[in-house]
Amino acid sequence: MTDVTSAKSARRSHHWRRDLVELAAMFTAVAVADAIANLVGHGPDGPFLLVASAVTLVATAAFHTWWAHRHSHAPPPGTPAAREPGKAETTGSAHTSAGTGPRETVLWRMRTTVRDTPGSLAALCTALAGQGVDILTLQTHPLADGTVDEFLLRAPAGLQAPDLTHGIAEAGGRDTWIERADAHDLVDTPTRVLGLATRTALDAAELPLALRQLLGRCTIRSRPALSLTGRPTGDLPPVEGVLEETVMHLRDPNGGALTVERPYLPFTPTEFARARALVELDARLGPRVPRSHDVLTLPEGNEIIVRRADQSDVEAALAMHERCSDRTLSLRYHGPVGDADRYLNHLLSPRYGRTLTVQTASGQLVALGHLLWDGDETEVALLVEDAWQRRGIGSELLGRLVGLAAEAGCASVYAVTQASNTGMVAAMRGLGLPLDYQIEEGTMVVTARLDTAPARPASRYEQIDR
Length: 466
Known about the structure:
By secondary structure, the chain is an alpha+beta fold. The protein has 14 helices and 17 strands.
């Protein structure tokens, strides 16, 4: 309050003195003008000189007014408009297009380890800024002997990965890992984790996929507690899990174990805690499979129901196996089927993939389609009861399974069959996708690349909403 009052008093004192000076200057000017008028007016050219003086004064006053108005609106010195008067708008546009306009950039994901000391992160940020790199997101993973900083970066397209890592190393980063990112990585971590938790809560089959999307490029394997012969498959990890550098061992809530491996980059305790949280969520919710279904009408008029299957369908699936011929079973399982019940318990478990079943209006199960998670790859397999073959049911199931694989982010699916199984080969060709064939000793592996697959293939049959 004192400073404000002092400032007002100073302004009043300044105005009073300026008014006094201007009044004295005005009296002086009048006296001088009167003396000059008396001197000139009595001369021979007095009237002409007075008129010329008046014109000169008016012109001078007009010039002074224009000059004062121009400089009161002039831009600050040093700006482009100040350097080139009259071209402010044009110069600014050229500057935007040449210097600050859109430039070609790429996205990088980078992880590096720094000492847990004040200023270490600031040094990294300064090094990135010096290379023209914009930091979009940042996560920190505390370790016992330092901190892992994970960045999502937008860098100039001309900046190469070795140059980027070299700058980070000079700023104190070590064990730096970098790879190209895409637009999917722009989602912040809390949003991505919540989305994965929601998917896991709705469907037990989503847990392996959620772990893969949470942890990046990794291999996930499920090991049942018992083998097909009924013997234990090995010691199970503790409930809290085990972290070993690049490998996680987690207790599967459905029994058995989940192994997550990422050889190119060690897991951090933070990532391990997130993975355990998803597994704990799955365990608390118990077995669950979406119960939605589609009713389709075959060309001959029969109605069939396509829905997700789980281990509650084992008895109906066994009954279908008993109605199938030996040839149909051998084409599906590549040999005789001795313990179909154990195969089916594994195949129908949502932990190992997704299974679609086709049943008639009376409730009889007549076809099964499996989408099986096989480490980094995905397998598809079909079994259609003999009496319902050659009606397009296998192709319908295969198209839906491929759509599920595409939604899960799988790059390809493969089918293992006998070279003589023309029905399966025709169904794979009917997908309209790029196919690779490998044949060895009568066994054929057909791989379909899903980079051009539709998210939800159209059905060949009329669908009835119920």
